[in-house]
Amino acid sequence: MVEWDGRFGTVGDLIPEGAPRLRRHVPIRAVGFSLTQATDRILGCLKGIATGDAVGKQTETLSHEDVRRWYPHGIHGFEGTPGSVIPRYVGNAKREWRIGETTDDTERTVAVARAVITDRTVSHVGVGREMLRCRKCVHPGVKSLWEFHQAADPTRIAKTHDGCGAAIRVAPVGIFCTSHRLDELLVGAREAAVSTHGGSPAIAAAAATAAAVSAAIDEASPRQILEVAEYAAAESERRWPGPVTPAFTNAIRAVHDYLERLPALRPAEIAASCFPNRPMTIVPLALGLATVMQSAEEAILLAANIGGDSDSVASIAGGILGAMYPMTVNHDWYTVVEAINHHDLVAIANELARLRH
Predict the structure, then answer these.
(1) Residue 25 and residue 42: Cα distance in Å, rounded?
(2) Exposed site from 90, 180, 229, 265, fewest CB < 10 Å?
(3) 8-state DSSP, 32
(4) Are 67 and 59 in contact (CB under 8 A)?
(5) End-to-end CA distance of the chain
């Protein structure tokens, strides 16, 4: 169990009242940072997102116990022949997901990137336009996406939905804006979110993720990345408040501090305390893994072996760590992902790098 301010329970239950513990925001500026270095980090981010998404998909929605049942020896990468159907999705009426296939997480990340590249800015209309071209997970079971596609209106602004669907596609905003442009990051994160997610926690999660990606590309330290993510979430919750007391910023710190205290990061122990199956654990867990670990590959595997919303956690953590440590993205996984999905992330990274400001 986790202790926070004298209370006990799982991390998801331990969001304290009151203001988050934040330092004054100090802009991060990369010194002597070349376009080539930026491009390498941007590509590392995109590769981390896509490989995390595809590896994590194998255990998405499974309880930790079911992860162990389906994969008694654990997830070590792609478990089976790339391109074949993931065993538990054989005969699935909605989609027979394939080993190495990315989900709507990467599809919509690419859509946001295309909107930024085309418009040279981040607007919800441009994002909506590109997202209407996406086809994965468009069914009533994913209400936020279903409502958006049913409306078929790129100008639509959602008023509800507090999930992590915006956070998992917002990395191109962090790639587009350097981390000292905090106001632009916050507005851009909201613009990338509101086509499908209008709830305050969802926008805060998107802001925190975009800020973390931006700081990682700017060569910030893990501690700086955490603080920038916290600050972005807190400022987002202040600007676009919801009907309940702001809590997302505190969730980021609670999960990070819990992970940092562990002597070792083990899937079973993490699953018992902060299982990623709700908004207050999914993105905070991803940000926590990204700021206590030093390898995109290892964070992706850990997320996949935990279960829950494993593809989202692996995608976000993999993207941030891929930006921090590009060489830690598994090259063999990326080769499989590109062969199956044809995202052409190299071209997207080159285009975004030229627009980063």
Answers:
(1) 23
(2) 90
(3) S
(4) yes
(5) 44
pLDDT at 16: 37
For residues 168 and 208, what is the distance between their CA atoms, to the nearest angstrom? 11
- The pTM (predicted TM-score) of the whole model is 0.92
Supply the angle between the helices 182-193 and 124-131 in degrees, to the nearest 10. 40
Whats the size of the chain, residue-wise? 357
CB atoms within 10 A of CB 310: 30
pLDDT at 117: 98
* pLDDT confidence band for 206 (50 / 70 / 90): very high
Residue 27's pLDDT band, with cuts at 50, 70 and 90, is low
DSSP state, 7? E
Determine the Cα–Cα distance for residues 1 and 330; give it in Å rounded to an integer: 33
Closest CA to 143 of 123, 125, 119, 161: 161
pLDDT at 244: 79
Supply 256's token pair: 């990070």
Query: With contact defined as beta carbons under 8 Å apart, do 310 and 66 qualify?
Result: no
| Contact between residue 51 and residue 300 where contact means Cβ atoms under 8 Å apart | yes
Q: Which tokens hold the place of 123?
A: 């607007």
CA distance 175 to 42: 7
